[in-house]
Design brief:
Shape: globular
Number of helices: 14
Distance between the termini: 11 Å
Number of strands: 13
Helix content: 40-55%
Strand content: 5-15%
Length: 336
């Protein structure tokens, strides 16, 4: 199983970010993924990292399909693939109403159709086809085509998906799948929908890269790292969307945490973030994260591999750069 890492998401100094990625590259990690919600834009960061590295793949994890036009996503994809000499991975998803409407001011409408049409157009543009497209959410009629000749006319596309219809579409049209709050012991919730999509495109299960985002922390004190993870889970389960439309809340309810999910959301929406974090059960942390002493974390990575994961994206939680780098080294593929 390959291992990837996620970029530190907060105000980590840039020199530490570069050091982190370069160390990951030296240790044999396959890729680094850069998230984008309402932080710095991911394209700028990925372009800078492409110039600071030589081997490690540079992935968007993820760009939403609303805030940029499909043509601009294609332009950025081509440029990033050129700057990285063919190392770019395009991660796409709908994000959610909080980001799309609350940050970008764009209506969160027809998410499945929008994703499908964006991917159609990105692939057309990278093949330098003239963009004439009559979709439900996107219409293009000028027939322009990309001026540049891309390094690759097909860049791997990974979709962040959780719901049944989105999972089926992912299996049908994507090269990979990136879930959040993934519990390997519940792969049965996801796999039938992914397989249904793969069957539509005539592909086998092995054609799909499975790249869940996995919060990771190597600490001898399991409870300490659990407490660090709980605010992150509470944000997703409680605050990523409205009461009626929160994909992550619906997901953990499918894991069996029905009452807990509702309590976390009630507290979070009442602006009691500390209470929401405290309401996250230890078991939810343990199911969806890889935390604790290094041996315990490695056991979790083995569970992920057994469930069919091909490249987990480790989001390393650490108090400082020294701990972050020590965790990279402890879990490095070369150390396995």
């Amino acid at each position: 199983m390959k291992l990837a890492v996620a970029l530190p998401y907060t105000d980590t100094p840039w020199d530490e970010v570069v050091e982190y990625v370069q160390v990951a590259e030296k240790l044999g990690y396959e890729a680094v993924f850069v998230a984008e919600a309402y932080s710095y834009d991911a394209v700028s960061i990925m372009a800078a990292l492409a110039m600071k590295t030589e081997r490690i793949k540079i992935g968007a994890g993820i760009l939403n399909v609303y805030s940029r036009s499909p043509a601009l996503i294609a332009q950025s994809t081509g440029a990033l693939d050129m700057l990285s000499n063919g190392r770019f991975i395009l991660g796409l998803g709908t994000s959610g109403p909080q980001v799309v409407q609350g940050w970008h001011g764009i209506p969160f409408e027809k998410p499945l159709q929008r994703t499908r049409e964006v991917i159609d157009i990105v692939r057309m543009a990278l093949r330098r086809e003239r963009l004439v497209y009559d979709g439900q959410t996107i219409k293009l009629d000028m027939g322009l085509k990309l001026i540049n000749h891309p390094v690759r006319e097909a860049v791997p596309i990974i979709i962040a998906a959780l719901g049944p219809k989105n999972l089926e579409m992912t299996g049908e049209i994507a090269d990979g799948w990136m879930p959040t709050l993934f519990a390997p012991d519940h792969m049965d919730i996801f796999r039938p929908h992914l397989e249904a999509g793969l069957a539509k495109s005539g592909r086998a299960w092995e054609a799909l890269e499975i790249t869940p985002a996995v919060i990771t922390g190597v600490y001898d004190d399991v409870d300490t790292i659990r407490q660090m993870v709980k605010p992150y889970i509470a944000l997703y389960v409680g605050g990523m969307g409205s009461r009626e439309r929160n994909f992550y809340n619906q997901l953990v309810q499918r894991y069996g945490y029905v009452d807990e999910a509702r309590t976390i959301q009630d507290l979070y929406l009442a602006r009691d973030k500390a209470g929401a974090a405290a309401a996250v059960p230890d078991a939810m942390v343990d199911q969806t994260s890889a935390v604790g002493p290094v041996g315990r974390v490695r056991e979790k990575l083995a569970e992920l591999e057994a469930a069919g994961v091909t490249m987990p994206v480790l989001g390393i939680m650490a108090f400082d750069q020294e701990t972050r780098l020590r965790t990279l080294e402890a879990l490095a593929p070369s150390a396995g």
